[in-house]
Design brief:
389 residues; alpha+beta; Porin; eight-stranded antiparallel β-barrel; 6 helices; 23% helix; elongated
């Protein structure tokens, strides 16, 4: 209805106004003017309603525009955090050289050794199986490769130079003081230092003491083993209660517990020796036989109650006897127990080998058979340890 009225008003407004009547009466003009004013007011009312509806529609459109502004057309594309352009869905950069496969590629083919393939059955792991001990060459290679920077790479067995040996040994010892005694009964040494009964008299048993020896040798040439020259020094000490010069019939003992008799022997040697180490070095046989021999000297002294004793001539009971000594022994090279440790000792400390050994000692310290020299040597055995470096 409003649209029809609006169209009528437009047509009415577009029509030219009628010419004024020259003879018309004023009443007719006023009536016509009133009618036109009424129509104009009605049209204004309708126009106001239309304008209000248009304003409402424009307000709704403005609110929608404020809520979501329209994107203006532009040639620039949005970018991501790395400033790379974000392409619209369905578009792609034709300049890319990457090609995408429809499915993942197959795994690479591995080369297997002789007698094995990819289809071979897997070997079950045995937790109880122990790895074999590596050979000496492998241990040496590992030992040398783990050395400090700047050293030459491993090129075979490289032991440090072997020039010296030091040993420490112990064994029983009994000086041969009574070896030349030709009188009746026990000799003078057995009477003082032998086993005694309750009364303090010798009961027929001879007591041995402990001999301690420290040795050192220089190995100057190797002929299937080192040929060396060395020296040893030992110490022996024996003690007993001193004998009383006069024994009373009422005395309970023939000894004087307050006075202690002590006999000291210090044997020294200069020996030439040879050790056969060829089998131990090349074939790892841990046994090393050896022999040594040379001159020796035994210094001795006897004391009583802390003071030196004297003989019948008033001379101090001390002296020395020269002679000779020989040693035959067998050494057990301990490297086979822990070869890696032995190699590290050689590389870090210069200790080539360690030994446990036993030997038999022949000692003749009697002035080469002199009647005036006291015999202080003995044939005995010793055991000890030694290191070569």
């Amino acid at each position: 209805m409003s649209a029809v009225a609006f169209t009528a008003l437009l047509l009415l407004a577009a029509a030219p106004p009628p010419p004024p009547s020259e003879t018309g009466d004023a009443d007719g003009a006023e009536d016509e003017a009133g009618t036109e004013e009424a129509g104009t007011e009605e049209a204004g009312t309708e126009e106001a309603g239309v304008e209000d509806a248009a304003e409402d529609e424009a307000g709704a459109d403005a609110e929608a525009a404020d809520a979501e502004p329209a994107a203006e057309p532009t040639d620039e594309l949005p970018v991501d955090e790395r400033y790379d352009p974000i392409l619209p869905y369905g578009e792609a950069d034709d300049t890319s050289e990457l090609e995408y496969a429809d499915e993942p590629p197959p795994p690479p083919e591995l080369e297997y050794g002789e007698g094995s393939s990819a289809d071979s059955e897997a070997v079950e792991y045995d937790e109880g199986h122990e790895r074999a001990t590596p050979d000496v060459v492998a241990i040496q290679r590992q030992s040398h490769e783990s050395s400090a920077l700047g050293e030459d790479p491993f090129d075979g067995r490289r032991d440090s130079p072997q020039r010296f040996l030091m040993e420490l040994k112990f064994g029983p010892y009994l000086p041969g003081v009574d070896s030349r005694w030709t009188g009746a009964g026990p000799g003078p040494y057995a009477m003082v230092f032998g086993e005694v009964d309750e009364y303090g008299e010798f009961d027929g048993a001879i007591r041995q003491g402990l001999l301690s020896v420290l040795g050192f040798e220089w190995q100057f040439i190797n002929l299937g083993g080192p040929l060396s020259v060395g020296t040893t020094i030992g110490y022996f000490r024996d003690t007993a209660d001193a004998l009383l010069a006069e024994v009373d019939e009422d005395s309970e003992t023939a000894r004087a517990p307050a006075d202690e008799a002590v006999f000291h022997v210090i044997p020294m040697t200069l020996l030439l020796g040879y050790r056969f180490e060829l089998l131990a070095d090349r074939f790892h046989v841990p046994l090393v036989p050896y022999a040594r021999g040379g001159i020796a000297y035994g210094f001795w002294v006897a004391t009583k109650g802390g003071s030196r004793t004297t003989n019948s001539a008033g001379e101090d009971s001390r002296g020395g006897s020269v002679g000779w000594q020989a040693n035959l022994g067998l050494m057990l090279r301990m490297d086979f127990l822990e070869r890696a440790v032995a190699l590290d000792l050689d590389r870090l400390a210069g200790i080539n080998h360690t030994y446990f050994f036993g030997e038999w000692q022949f000692s003749r310290l009697d002035g080469f058979g002199s009647e005036t020299a006291m015999s202080v040597g003995d044939d005995t055995f010793t055991v000890g340890v030694a290191v070569e470096f």
